[in-house]
Fold these 2 entries.
Entry 1:
Amino acid sequence: MKQHLDAVQSSFDPRAQAYLSSAVHAAGADLQAARELLAAPVQRIERALDLGCGAGHLAYVLAPQVGQVVAFDASPAMLDVVRDSAAQRGLGNLDCQVGDVHQLPFADSSFDLVATRYSAHHWRDLPRAMAEARRVLRSGGRLLFIDLEAPSDTLVDTHLQAMELLRDPSHVRNRSREEWLALLRAIGAQVEHEQRWPTRLQFDTWVQRMQTPEPMVRAIRLLQQGAPAEVSAGLAIEPDGSFTPSTVLWWARCAG
Ligand SMILES: C[S@@+](CC[C@H](N)C(=O)[O-])C[C@H]1O[C@@H](n2cnc3c(N)ncnc32)[C@H](O)[C@@H]1O
């Protein structure tokens, strides 16, 4: 039987190019906010780590503003795409490393910033991965976490998780605001900035990017069509299946 990390690699290895060109991933108000946070006068960030870098869109924002970025991912094919794209963009300070966020191959306190975007909902054991992020972060270092957020309404949340899992077997869970706050508190992170944006997922491109099998696409549509009004409203489900969850950004400092 396959382990969850095998499911992650099977989901992402064949789709690396699709993630490089994905509009949801390549652009977004969250990337602009990340740029602005990094430009604010915090202590200079020498070494940054992008966990679950995918096709590298957050790493490309970090690279011009820090000394060095390590783009880290479980998918070797994603990292091939990042290497090529970083070279085309003239980003000579971006290194790639393959591995699992639950066991980071880095020394304690070796980064000034640990970042991640649209990856944490795939992590099998988020508290453990966050403890690893904390371990490799120096005292006083910053965390930048960005992900789709689970609605705090349980019924709406259940429908979102079901749609995500039907689309992609490597999905684990989107977390709610309350869950994120508890996870950050558990590693001693002090939140300095929190922001969220509506993120519209156009249905056809959302399932095509992941090459979701047709029976699963039908199941998602049936689920949406049978959803109660509170769910349709909570996720802004449109007639063609497009819907709009929130993206949340956490910027936090870890002292001591
Ligand atoms: C949606 S993509 C990330 C998008 C990217 N960060 C961006 O800003 O465009 C999710 C990535 O997380 C990676 N990932 C998921 N679980 C992981 C794990 N346990 N360890 C390392 N990478 C993981 C996947 O391989 C995939 O490339």
Note: The pocket of S-adenosylmethionine is lined by residues 5, 8, 12, 19, 25, 52-55, 57-58, 73-75, 78, 100-102, 117-119, 122-123 (CB under 6 Å).
Entry 2:
Amino acid sequence: MLVADSSEDKIRINLVDPRWTKEALMELKKTTSFICPSCRTPVQLKIGETRIPHFAHINTCSIQGEKESLYHMDGKIQLHDWLQNQGIKGELETYYPSIKQRADVVAEIDDETICFEFQCAKISEQEKLARTNGYEKEQLSVKWILGGNRVKRLKTYEYRFNHFVWDFIQLNSAGISYLLSYCSKLKAFILLDSIVPFSKQTIFANTTILPSSQLSFQQFLQPTNVSWEPVVFQKQWMMKRDRFRNVPKVHVSKKEKRLQALIYEQYGIPLTLVPSEAFIPLKEAWRLKEAVYVWQTIVLHALESISEGEVFHLQRVLWLMNRNVNFEHFTQEKDIVQTVVQSYLNKLSTLGIIHKVKRNEYKKSNYSFFLSSYEAIQKRDKQMDTFFRQKRKV
Ligand SMILES: [Zn+2]
């Protein structure tokens, strides 16, 4: 915490104020005790060698809850400076008693009061929504900035996401998804685009590091250079698929277990031999928050029950998917499932695997998705790779 009140005369002490040098604070500390401006309980002024001077609760803060990390504290100061350097006046740790919420940074921009929440700890969708609603009740806008510490990079294009990170993905005006986080260690914004989930936790994306001096507030609202180019991680994506085939998973989710049982019963194959067509990266797929090979295999299984030469509608595929598998997840958000499946069917038709007759209507060709030998699958995988190379942008 960087702001506290003196307990006697209730003067607000803001540690970012340049007059509070270490020496001045040492002096102040001798004569003054402090309280948290939000919960009004005592806090200590900590002046150490390694960490920046800050206030710490003696007991837990009833407003803020969790203990604040240095990463979070640094980030707040940097975001405050970032605004200030653009001529935007910002205030740190503003407390709103009516909603019992403390914003990390608050700025006045074009007659609008904007509260910035720099989120470095896990947060549930419900709590995020409740806090957003709280600000809205006070006619305040809120901008959530995910802490870069929450975006774990495993390889050049491979990331591990906590479940709550999904909720921070945004769409630009062209409808392309991106994730903008801020890292207080790098002092930079991290922009991820071309976001595609491989599994529930493993996400592929393209990364751009934007030092805060290179990103204006306007660009923060609407980042330029957000694009959809999964071809950049094509090679790593395919290696991931090959690994999926060769190294059986240790942890299999409930849904994967059900899928495994289904395809074993129907086609006599293990989960590692799901079709080659079940690894297609799609622009909208992140909205399903599901492993690519799980949901695409479910669609392919639905297609398999349609006869060769038959014309079918998107709705029929959705109905078959639901009947065959009945995953709760797929029945909850019908419009999202519809959009994603539609996009997938269109992709299969551009690859020549099914034929598009007209909007939302397709014709089944002579093509089997489920192959029973590892050799046949490997050959098909190679074919799919060629497809991707031919159509550079997948
Ligand atoms: Zn407090």
Note: The first strand starts at residue 3 and ends at 6.
